[in-house]
Design brief:
Blueprint (H helix, E strand, L loop, with lengths): L8 H11 L10 H23 L5 H21 L5 H18 L7 H18 L4 H29 L2 H17 L4 H4 L7 E4 L2 E4 H45 L10 E8 L7 E8 L3 E9 L3 H18 L6 H12 L8 E8 L4 E7 L5 E2 L2 E2 L4 E2 L12 E5 L5 E5 L1 H4 L10 H7 L5 H12 L4 E8 L7
Helix pairs in contact: 2-3, 2-9, 3-4, 3-9, 4-5, 4-6, 6-7, 7-9, 9-10, 10-11
């Protein structure tokens, strides 16, 4: 940001003459070329980081800001007359950079700020200003940047955390490096515009901005790496849970004489919370469990693993749906992390006798009609929960349809639910058709559909 002055005419002329770089020897200005190269390197690194992490927008802002600063330094090195253009743009970007670095919400005031910078550029382009007045325009750009930036630093220190307070140090140094270039400050603090080293002129402001850019780039690059490590850790956990779930969800349905069973499972995410199990029962019967764990992701998958393991273990000791649910409920107490699990357990004997226990799950449909079951509390909510058993008898070629609430709660783009009426109207269709209809309507949860067709009691010898 090339400094300028604005005060009484004589004071302005004196300051402009003192700060003007036009009469210096070209080799004395090589420091500006070095600064331009360093700042451009930070800009290039920032744009590469943003390209690989689009969600961290400060890399984009930092890249644009440092690029305009590098352009200002290059214009100073060449002694060109249009320095005010990148300076004004850099001032506007500086406000946004301060806000993003300190995590201060930018809306709606940032739009007012952008209109101000556009207005300043418009004045410079269309008002026919000469070099002297362009320098005065730069002063207004500096003034409209430095004082608001100082306010942002104070807000960041006051409201921010440890990271924001640390970030405020280089940001405050930027403001302090440029404040002495304003005539109202120079009246009290006569700070040199820069210093000479290696035979070159170095501006305090540009040197501090290199420090600022390096600090911001380093801080957010470290956050990017930490974010990527965390995402990779979560991906590994999700993959592990998905593998576990694939093992738990049966790929092949056991063949039980007299029954034709079809199951369709469509998780909404990588890892779902639905589960089902189909096991052969004694006396050529079949034992079925279907359920839905509240929540999603790895915690739900771990709960599913616990439930499936418990169900398969209990099936060795009892085939009573009520007893199985009561034991599963006891196992889930204190392990639900504030959630719950609905579960439906059915046993169908070879003669078509159906015994069902329900823990808050959707009731099954028999030949398109909902079965009225006694329902207890979902699993894991109460130690004293009891699960009554309901008994029915299946006729030959009758079909039992079990499903999870992912079917009923499917929602289209207008927000309309698939609902119970639509669900009931399609329960005579195949499991694939039911799941496909809900998925096409608008899947918002895991969908599990299981159909059991009773072929009839075996003939007696």
């Amino acid at each position: 940001m090339a400094p300028a002055a604005f005060a009484a005419p004589q004071a302005a002329n004196d300051t402009l003459r003192q700060l003007s770089l036009r009469n210096l020897q070209p080799d004395f200005l090589d420091g500006f070329l070095v600064l331009a190269v360093l700042v451009f390197a930070i800009s290039a690194g920032s744009i590469i980081a943003w390209w690989n992490a689009r969600h961290i927008s400060i890399f984009r802002t930092l890249a644009a800001y440092m690029f305009t600063i590098a352009l200002v330094d290059f214009v100073d090195f060449r002694g060109l007359s249009w320095e005010w253009i990148p300076t004004t743009i850099a001032c506007g970007l500086g406000i946004e950079l301060f806000a993003e670095a300190l995590r201060i919400p930018k809306r709606p005031w940032i739009w007012i700020s952008r209109l101000v910078w556009i207005a300043l550029l418009g004045i410079g382009f269309f008002a026919g200003l000469d070099w002297y007045h362009h320098q005065l325009l730069e002063l207004w750009a500096l003034r409209l940047t430095l004082f608001p930036s100082l306010v942002l630093v104070v807000i960041g220190i006051w409201r921010g955390g440890r990271r924001e307070r640390l970030m405020s140090i280089p940001l405050a140094l930027i403001v302090l490096a440029y404040l002495p270039t304003l005539p109202e400050i120079r009246m009290f603090a006569h700070v040199p515009f820069g210093f000479v080293a290696f035979g070159w002129l170095w501006q305090w402001g540009e040197c501090v901005q290199i420090l600022l850019g390096a600090v911001i780039f380093n801080v957010f690059l470290r956050e990017l790496f930490a974010d990527q490590r965390e995402k990779q850790r979560l991906l590994n956990e999700v993959e592990a849970a998905r593998i576990v779930q694939q093992v738990l969800i049966p790929e092949a349905i056991p063949t039980v004489p007299g029954f034709r069973t079809v199951a369709v499972y469509k998780p909404f995410g990588e890892v779902g919370g639905d589960f089902f199990q189909i096991l052969p029962a004694k006396n050529n019967g079949v034992l079925i469990a279907i359920g839905d764990v509240s929540g999603k992701g790895v915690p739900a998958a771990m709960t599913v693993a616990l439930l499936v393991g418990t169900f398969r273990t209990l099936a060795h000791y009892t085939e009573s749906p009520g007893e199985i649910l009561a034991a599963m409920n006891q196992r889930m107490l204190g392990r639900s992390n504030g959630g719950f699990t609905t579960c439906l357990v059915l046993r169908v004997d070879a003669n078509g006798a159906l015994t069902a226990g329900n823990a808050g799950h959707l009731p099954p449909y028999l030949d398109g009609k909902e079965l009225g079951l006694d329902s207890g509390l979902p699993l894991g909510l109460s130690a004293g929960a009891a699960y009554a058993e309901s008994c029915f008898r299946l006729a030959t070629d009758s079909t039992l349809t079990l499903l999870t609430d992912g079917v009923v709660e499917a929602r289209n783009s207008e927000g309309e639910l698939f609902g119970f009426d639509r669900t009931a109207s399609i329960t005579l269709q195949s499991a694939d058709e039911i799941a496909g209809a809900a998925q096409q309507f608008g899947q918002e949860d895991d969908i599990t559909v299981l159909t059991l067709t009773f072929a009839g009691a075996p003939a007696r010898a």
